[in-house]
Structure formats: structure tokens, C-alpha cells
Automatic annotation (TrEMBL):
<protein>
    <recommendedName>
        <fullName>MARVEL domain-containing protein</fullName>
    </recommendedName>
</protein>
<keyword id="KW-0812">Transmembrane</keyword>
<keyword id="KW-1133">Transmembrane helix</keyword>
<feature type="transmembrane region" description="Helical">
    <location>
        <begin position="12"/>
        <end position="37"/>
    </location>
</feature>
<feature type="transmembrane region" description="Helical">
    <location>
        <begin position="120"/>
        <end position="140"/>
    </location>
</feature>
<feature type="transmembrane region" description="Helical">
    <location>
        <begin position="49"/>
        <end position="71"/>
    </location>
</feature>
<feature type="transmembrane region" description="Helical">
    <location>
        <begin position="78"/>
        <end position="100"/>
    </location>
</feature>
<keyword id="KW-0472">Membrane</keyword>
Amino acid sequence: MGLRDRRFELSIINIFQSICRIIQLVLALAVCGIYGMEFSGHDSWKGRWIYAEVTAGLSALTAILYLLPFFTRIPFVFLWDFILFILWIVLFGIFGKLYIPEDAAGNYRVQKMKNTVWLVLANGISWLLSAIGMGFLWFYRKRNSMFTGRAIV
């Protein structure tokens, strides 16, 4: 058996994917926590805060599911990564327009929101790189023949 079990092959690519997914999970949870604290401090429910929480929650859930080995074998999983990239970039546009031009001179809350906008951008870039990598692996993976499974097609 060893490290090269047929079902759970430990390779450099799988280890690298797991590290990337953990980074995506940490980034999504950080954004979820920071925006969640801001969201709970407001009296009204604004759509942008709900959108931020839903996007971060979907990303965190996706990163957790992708840590399971059999989820990366689902066809066209890279399309969901690309959808998450678009969601993060829209979120960057929403909060970037609000907080990047603001002057944070001594205002801790504004500075925290400006820093979180860059976390949102880092999330978007990580999902774009993930979509490109997963798409590359999907289209250029080793495929075994249909009848015996021994030949690489």
C-alpha cells in the first residue's frame, strides 16, 4: 500500500492543491469574520454585507469540500472556481468603491475596511489561479483507456 494508494494518490500536485485550498479557506474565513463583525454592528441589513457573507461562506465551504480527494475529480469543477472568482471581484468592486478612496486618518474602522478590501482581492486572485490550475489539470490529465484501464490515452 504505502503512500501510493490507488484511490488517494499523494503527489506533489495533490499536496500543492491542499495547501492552496487551506489558504483559500483561511482567507475566506478572515473576510467572513471581519465583515461579519461589521455586519452585526449595523442596524439595517444592507445587501452588500449579506453578499459579502454569502460569498465568503460559499468560498469557505467550497475550500473545505475541495480538501476531500474525490471532489477534485468532478468534471468541470474549475467552472465553479471561476464563478467564485467573479463573485470575489464583484465584492472587491463594491467595497473598493466604498473604502479605497476614503481617508483613514486615525479612523481604525476605515483602515480595517481598507485592509479587508485587499484581502477580498487576494481571495479573488486565489480563485482565479485555482480555476486556471484545475482547468489545466482537467484538460491535460492522464486518461486511461476505456476497456482495460492500462493504457494512457
